[in-house]
Write a structure and sequence with these properties.
single chain; about 300 residues; alpha/beta; Rossmann fold; nine-stranded mixed β-sheet; three-stranded antiparallel β-sheet; globular
Length: about 300
Amino acid sequence: MDDKERLAANRRRWDRLADLHLESPFYDVAGFRAGRPTLDAVELEGVGDVTGQSLLHLQCHFGLATLDWARRGARTVGVDFSARAIRHARKLADELKLEARFVEADVCDALPHLGGERFDVVFTSYGTISWLPELRGWARTIAGSLKPGGRLFLADFHPLLWMFDETSSVEELTLSYPYFAQEALREEERGSYAVPDADFTAVSYSWQHTFEDIIGVLLAEGLAVTSLREYPYLAWKWFDFMVQGTDGFWRMPEGAPDLPLMFSITARAPEQSSPHEAGTDTWEQDPQATTVRAQSSVKTPAQ
């Protein structure tokens, strides 16, 4: 089986999950219709004010976060590879009369489907890049869809967390997968994080991406990484023993190892579009080692 077939299997699974998730308490679409926000503090702080700005949401699922940005004043476009998710998103946008457009496309090949439109913000968060076998096409989509000076915000689970068996106990955290793994991880799972008891089982494929992978492709596309943050909490429950705080985030219980659970990256496109110029990458790390900032004139990898 090649990656094209693996992605097709993932698409079939996400088509079915789009239907199940729409009705799930986890997503609480009824609450969202009534005005409940879905974006969290990390996302809101990372992106900032979007009033009057254009925003592209990559791997948007059925569009709740995309529509939340629209409620906050952005002109939004959501992209996802699931036809059913896009249909649900369009229906919700029409129902709520929000300024949002949804495009069915593979995130790594989305530029032709966007018709040359450029955006002030590209946003993607939580459980996204692990579904991509490689990140070069993803980074090209980001760079090719940002306006000069536009900004990227990405938040996702920490690459280190991917190494652990999700069924580990708090007494014995089990390392099951190598950090530098390049092979697809095959899993047969009943339901999903949102509907764990659903009468639906499917095979999925995911891929590990290191910080070198993630930041390297962004630099190679001419973006300047302006912030890298790591968090001791997560936006969803990874291990069964995790404890949810009043802020909605999940943490390791007292006495458990203090692991990095989530990260975020912000990056900016050059103020003027220009061909990549070879140069050196300059990194500055703050004293608390929780935020890394970079300014770069990018080295393009040899082909």
